[in-house]
Amino acid sequence: MLLCGGERVSIEVDIYEKIRHLYEHEGKSQRAISKILGVSRNTVKKYCDGSHVPWERQGKSGRRQYVITDEIMEFIKSCLASDEAENIKKQKHTAKRIYDRLVDEKAFKGGESTIREIVAKLKEKQKKVFIPLSYEPGEAIQIDWGEATIYLAGKKIKVNLFCMRECYSADIYCRAFYRQNEESFLEGQITGFEYFDGAPKRMIFDNAKVAVKEGFGVHAKAQDRYKALSAHYAFKCEFTNIAAGHEKGLVEGLVGWVRRNILVPIPRVATMDELNAEILRRCLKYREHQIKGREQTVGKMALTARVRMTQLPRYRFDPSKSITARVDDFSTVRFDYNHYSVPVKYAGKEVSVKGYGNEVVMFHRNTEIARYQRCYQRRQTKYRLEHYIDLIEKRPRSVFNAKPVKSNISAELLEIGKRLSGPREMVKLLRLLVDYGEDKLMSAIDSIQNPEISVEQIRAYLIPVNTPAKIHSRIDIKVTKPQLNKYDNLMSGGAAV
Questions:
Q1: Which of 207, 227, 271, 340 meets the CB 3.0–4.6 Å disulfide criterion with 222?
Q2: Helix axes 112-123, 70-86, angle to 10 degrees
Q3: 3-state SS class at 362
Q4: Residues 374/159, Cβ–Cβ less than 8 Å
Q5: Banded model confidence at residue 363, pLDDT cuts 50, 70, 90
Q6: Tens digit of each residue's pLDDT (9 = 90 or more) over 272-302
Q7: Which domains does the chain have, with CATH numbers?
């Protein structure tokens, strides 16, 4: 370093080179080198033996600034530790906030830049090192939730992916749900156990409220229904620590894999069942995959794990949210802020309603009477035309204003119905709709060339007259040739042979 007006500056590499050459090869003294090159003797002394180099910045003296006491350091560390414990990304201490608190709470007299430097060092990211883990066959399954975007019946929505991974074989299972509620959480695990054909000894999950009543990690207490599920399938609930995604790293990677490999391009499906059928197909195909470093495919290792898993109980755990409700005068049942229709013959009767993750099913005396895709909006009513058609046939004048009609047929079909001779003809058209479906009905209507369309014409296309059976002119009947010699013998008085 050279001193220029009291300020330290770095020497150039060529000066350093000349100092070293003169000292090592020409045997010049430090005084002589200083005189030849015109640099200070201190500079020559520093660089002549090669113990210092000009291109590396020398560290500070190591003296700690007098204002940074142990108490100040502990306060800074406690602020950062509390951020890590809370794990709220958008509400963490900044260096400025720590400095302000030090001034207010500790009467700190130092500068803000000093605190910034300390916080930067404490926050300096270091490469995390993890312990490689090994699992026994059927020992554990990791589970997790993720989100994805799909087009459902032409509408862009977000769905929730419930993912499971068997730790020994890395076998995968995934199912899409509308919500991350308790019904979906329990149903996902039950269908997953059925996919793996067994239950593991441990289920590893995070501390989501859907599973944990209170606490976290080893201190977590499972929700009552999750505890009941674990008892029925004989597995132990194991919850990870806060912000410890690496504790279930196998399934963490699975969520991203499903998004990238199954849901790209964005699926366009008519129903959730269609989406889940495709996801299941891809999960089965994954069993053909062989993970790098393993001698067997995922499927073969899964067979080994299956043998060690707990057998599924004979009784299938019911994951639904179940209630008993009375059918109202409009033949609908209320469930979870919405109404669903049932056949009118059940009006006034009590029925059982079971809400699953994606479906709502109604029962009367253990007989299923209606099934719907579950609606998660509020104050909605879902009608089925077939539930009301018998009543509408008795009261045909209501047909054009009936909500079950308006909410279940297209505007095009409604307009066609209005062109008919009256409400009774419209009711007959609806009966054909219920019996044959709208696609076949519209196909029959499109086939009619006459602008004056009638229900009889439509019915003729839907129910064609049977073609008479073709009569074959050639009749293949085997006739035995008569034996006349027997008759001649009888006539001559002989005996028949």
A1: 227
A2: 50
A3: strand
A4: no
A5: very high
A6: 999 999 999 999 999 999 988 888 999 999 9
A7: 2-47 (no CATH), 70-123 (no CATH), 140-308 (3.30.420.10), 321-382 (no CATH)
